[in-house]
Amino acid sequence: MGETVGSAALGRWLRAFADAVSENADELTALDSAIGDADHGANMRRGMNAVVAKLDAAPDVAPAALLKTVGMTLVSTVGGASGPLYGTLFLRMGTSAGDRAELDAQAFAAALRAGLNGVVARGKAVLGDKTMVDALTPAVDALDAALTDGAGLSDALHAAATAADRGSDATIPLVARKGRASYLGARSAGHRDPGATSTALLVNTAAASLG
Amino acid sequence: MNAPDPNVGIVVVSHSRALGNAAAELAAEVIGDIDVPITVAAGLDATTPGTDAAAIATAIATSDRGAGVVVLMDLGSAVLSAELALDLLDDVGADPATRGRTVLCPGPLVEGLVVAAATASTGADRHRVSADAAAALGPKRSHLGLSWEPTT
Fold first, then answer.
1. Would you state the torsion angle of the CA atoms of residues B70, B72, B76, B81, taken in this order, to the nearest 10 degrees?
2. If you write DSSP's letter for every residue of B101-137 in order, what string do you get?
3. Is pLDDT of B150 > 70?
4. Angle in degrees, CA B79, B66, A91, rounded to 5
5. Does residue A2 register a pLDDT over 70?
């Protein structure tokens, strides 16, 4: 724990996210079976298990290289739309990290913002489309706002996690406009979006592991 | 004697390895022994459905003989992964010019692939190949008595 994020901290976060995905895989798949193709939990578990295997094999690299490895691993192992989307998130975070050995709070927030921008550009989703963007956008906004207000990284990440949870909750009444769920039209309303749900897990595990 | 100009390459992106291979077999029937590189990037492995942007990037790199590549995709993540693959071409050691001569085709996978292969085998450029593949539902629509353009 500390005010900066290096590769060891990133590794703790990713392992915690892998555990959370595994524990919630059945729920993620159940959400996806309601409005999608019933594979989100299994796909994310396969992808994050592959990420953990990569972390085990090469734990000692700089943040940028670690984040790129995570992105490339997800791109090649998730399989569904979450592969290119989560993959892009981590690839862009890696680019943003540059040659830093440790990311301070501002640099970590900037990396997450770059990741969000990448996801938005890749998926062409906007707020309210009932996607992972609906959890990630308020989380990144809350992180930036808390840091601007003088909060430390830990408190700011907890604010981000609360915002991600609220964003995930707010997808329930929405009608999906992207992905397989959009084929259902109005019938997608009343179900929580699985991508927003896994993204809330990502931000909650960041709050628990970093800062 | 100069070597003949290379034909446009074609990449088949599908969630299913079996579907991708079968579609490529159909396309191979229309080109006979004419050299059109067709590469399948489909499924995470032989039985696990999914798309892999890194594998698609490699397929694009190996299918570009200098005339560029037309990419046919099925649905959903196939499109996102193909778009991401364009960003990964450097990582797989592609010719720096390949990105600029790769076209992601909006045509339907099976009909589009067969038409793309046929057009590519005539030596047409990548824009012609992609345009013909994108219009590949025309004959079927016409036969069924529907207007040529899909209704919205």
1. -40
2. GEEEE-S-HHHHHHHHHHHHHTT--HHHHHHHHHTTT
3. no
4. 40
5. no
ipTM: 0.91
**Residues of chain A above pLDDT 90, percent:** 93
Pairwise CB contact (< 8 Å): B53 & A84: yes
Determine how many CB atoms are found less than 10 A away from the CB of residue A87.
30
The pLDDT tens digits of the residues spanning B71-81 come to: 999 988 999 99
List CB contacts (< 8 A) between B51 and chain A: 79, 83-84
- Provide the whole-model pTM: 0.94
Residues of A in contact with B55 (CB under 8 A): 76
Neighbours of A124 (CB within 10 A): 12
How many angstroms separate the Cα of B34 from the Cα of each of A92, A179, B64, B69? 41, 38, 16, 16
Provide long-range contacts, Cβ within 8 A and 24+ apart, for A67-72: A67/A10, A67/A91, A67/A93, A67/A94, A67/A97, A67/A111, A68/A94, A68/A95, A70/A14, A70/A94, A72/B54, A72/B88, A72/B91
Longest Cα pair distance anywhere in chain B, in angstroms? 51
Residue-wise pLDDT for B5-50, tens only, equals 999 999 999 999 999 999 999 999 999 999 999 999 999 999 999 9
> Which candidate from A72, A79, A88 shows the least CB-CB separation from B50?
A79
